[in-house]
Amino acid sequence: MIEVRNLTKTYMTHERGHTLREVAKNLIRRPMKEITAVNNLSFIVPQGEMLAFLGPNGAGKSTTLKMLTGVLHPTAGEVRALGLVPWKQRREYVGKIGAVFGQKSQLLWDIPPADAFYMNKAIYGVPEPEYRATLNELVELLEVGDVMRKPTRQLSLGERMKCEFIMAMLHRPQLVFLDEPTIGLDMIAKENIRGFIRSMNRQGVTFILTTHDLEDVEMLAERVIVINHGTIVFDDALGSLRSRVGNKKSVRLTTEAAVPDLQLQGLRIAERLGPLEIEVEIDTDLLPLKHFIRDFNDVYGIADMDIESIPIESIMKELYLENAEARSEAAVTK
Ligand SMILES: Nc1ncnc2c1ncn2[C@@H]1O[C@H](COP(=O)(O)OP(=O)(O)OP(=O)(O)O)[C@@H](O)[C@H]1O
Fold first, then answer.
1. Whose CA is nearest to atom 6 of ligand 1?
2. Contact 60 CB / ligand 1 (< 6 Å)
3. What's the ipTM?
4. Residue from 12, 35, 179, 217 whose mutation best tests the ligand 1 pocket (most atoms within 8 A of CB)
5. Can you give the residue ranges of the ABC transporter domain (predicted)?
6. Which ligand 1 atom minimizes the distance to the CA of 12?
7. I need a surface site. Which of 136, 265, 299, 327 has the fewest CB within 10 A?
8. SS3 sequence, 64-96?
9. Which fold has domain 2-242?
């Protein structure tokens, strides 16, 4: 469905200079600097997949998405999506894809979503019976029958996001790009939107999701691609992201005696939350939980304890840091 091969994008920007002298000099002759935002990306997304495309700020996600949606021309490489080259066959391509950007609205502030939907019907040339059937299905799924006739500016953020999804899905796109689709929503609205995405995915719609909300990723994605500095640092099933860091647990403890700074294999003190409260990270392959609990109880007295799997946030942080360390080592050996 989507085939990306050696995709690269470099931007040319003006160098500003750091010192006053440099800034003054650069006013006369502005030297150019090349930034490689996306560096030789290759991956395939099969039809019906729910892919999370993640990375820290500045990793190159938006640049990649802009090329995949046909907004930007790449510097090098190829993309074939739905049988088309996005930036070359843009008109035909946009008729087949959808996009929801949590921070950008496709609705019109002063008119009700119902009217904006009708406008989209005309833009995409959706025949009346198909439009009615799709609209009814989506309105029922998202429960927006009443709200879609109010002016958009009167809607709550949750109601508006549901309408944004209807707007994006009315022409029945086979491929949908989501950028921070649940940003700012409360838990119930988030769950509604996620349920809707899952039900569309069950109908065969492919989703590419970019987000900094890792709960969205855990609730939705089957596969995760992580990029950093424009290159892929991870591409596998969501489950493998967890197993990558081994069998680690996060344990929050309240003890009767203070726990000193320990050097114990398989244990890392992650945070001191109070004089008798700490959070530790345990690699259970090196330090089995039952040994940890027995020994800690004997020495410090466990008054209370909470054990959880390492949150996906920590796994991602580790992945980003690992990559940064590898890059700085490579820079030193150059
Ligand atoms: N139009 C542009 N001109 C010059 N540099 C750019 C331009 N757009 C992006 N960049 C640079 O390219 C790199 C990748 O940016 P991009 O916006 O793709 O990252 P991102 O992963 O989407 O980040 P974020 O999560 O913060 O949105 C950054 O270093 C950014 O400063």
1. 11
2. yes
3. 0.96
4. 35
5. 2-254
6. 4
7. 265
8. HHHHHCCCCCCCEEEEEECCECCCCCHHHHHCC
9. Rossmann fold (3.40.50)
